[in-house]
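Notes, p. 3: input format for complexes.
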Amino acid sequence: MGFRVAVVGATGNVGREILATLAERQFPCDEVVALASSRSIGRQVSFGEDDILDVQVLDNFDFKGIDIVLSSPGAKVSAVFAPRAAKAGAIVIDNTSQWRMDPDVPLVVPEVNPDAIKGYAKRGIIANPNCSTIQMVVALKPLHDLAKIKRVVVATYQSVSGAGRSAMDELFAQTRSVYVNDPIKPEVLTKQIAFNVIPHIDVFMADGSTKEEWKMAVETRKILDPDIAVSATCVRVPVFIGHAEAVNVEFVRPITEAEARKALRDFSGIAVVDHRADEGYATPAEIAGEDLVYVSRIRKDPTVTNGLAMWIVADNLRKGAATNAVQIAELLCERYLDRKGRVTAGRRIAPALT
Ligand SMILES: NC(=O)c1ccc[n+]([C@@H]2O[C@H](COP(=O)([O-])OP(=O)(O)OC[C@H]3O[C@@H](n4cnc5c(N)ncnc54)[C@H](OP(=O)(O)O)[C@@H]3O)[C@@H](O)[C@H]2O)c1
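Output follows (354 residues plus NAP):
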C-alpha cells in the first residue's frame, strides 16, 4: 500500500532526478505518473532500474486520486496547474519560484525548518527553495543555532544545469565551437558560457541586483530568520552539475573555528571536508550525484567582528532540487498522511476533504 505520485516536468533535469531519487530512496509509491508538455507526446522516461513510464500531457491530466505531486515545469506553468492539482485533492511540492514567497505556502528545507511543513494545509502547496538557497541555509543553520547570524555575504558559482537541459547543451556546443573555431552565438544564456563566467542569473531588479540574488536573500529570511541580512552575487560558471558558494558570515557573538567545525560536522546532511592541503576541499565535479552539502575552507574572517568564511558545495539537481523535494514528501507522509494518501493529522483544504 503506497501513494499515487505524479511528477510534473518529468522530462527535464529536475524531473528526471526526482524520478531517480524516488526510486533510490524507495519512496512508497503504488503508482508514478510522468507529466510534461505536449512536446513530449510519445516520449518515455525511466523510473528506477526496470520501469519505463510513458509521458502524459499535463494540460488535460486529471489529478483526482493523486496523493502527491512533485513538480518542476517552470513558474508560469506551476502558477496555473498547482492550484488545479491541489483542488483535486493532491498535495503539490513545487520546485519553481512561483509559490516560494506566498505567505500561505511553506518554504521547506527538512534539516532546517521541518515544522514549517504543517502550513501545507492552507493551499495544498509546499515550495522547494532555490537551489543556491538550499545548500546555503543547510550550512548556516547549525551556525545560527550556535551564535546567531547577523549578516551573510555570498558569491555563487552556479552550474549550467541550474538553467535547464538547454543550458547544458549550450555549454557543450560552445565548448566544441571554441576548439573547432566555429562562431559562438549565445541563445539560452546571455553571454558566452564556455571558458567564461556570467554575473547574471534571472532578470534584473530595479535596485540593480538580479532576481536570483533577491531570491537568496528573501528565501533565507523566510526559512531561517527574518532578521538576517544577505548580500548575494550570483554567477553562472562553465560547470555542468554542482553549485559552489563563497560565504562570509557575521555573527552576533564570537564563534571559534573549532566550534563552527564541530557544529557543522554534527549536523544532519552536511559533510565537512577541510584539510588545508592539496585536495583537502570539495569541488562540484567531485560531489555531483551526492545528496550532502559539503563545507570546506572554514576560517576566520578577520575583516569584521565575529566573522567566519567558508566554501559550500552541493549538487543543485539533488539536494538543490530533487532530494530536498523527496525529503519533504517523506516528512509529509510521516507526519500527515497514511499510506492511502488520507490525511491523518492537520487538515487538507481540497474540496473532497473539507
Ligand atoms: N535545475 C536546477 O538546479 C533547479 C533547482 C531548483 C529548481 N529548479 C526549477 O525547476 C524548474 C525546471 O528546471 P529544469 O532544470 O528541470 O528545467 P528543464 O530541464 O528545462 O525541464 C523543464 C521541464 O518542464 C516541462 N515543461 C515545460 N513547459 C511545460 C508545460 N507547458 N506543461 C508541462 N510541462 C512543461 C518540460 O517538458 P518538455 O520536455 O515537454 O518541454 C520539462 O519536463 C524551473 O522552474 C527551475 O527554476 C531548477
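The two ends are 24 Å apart (CA to CA).
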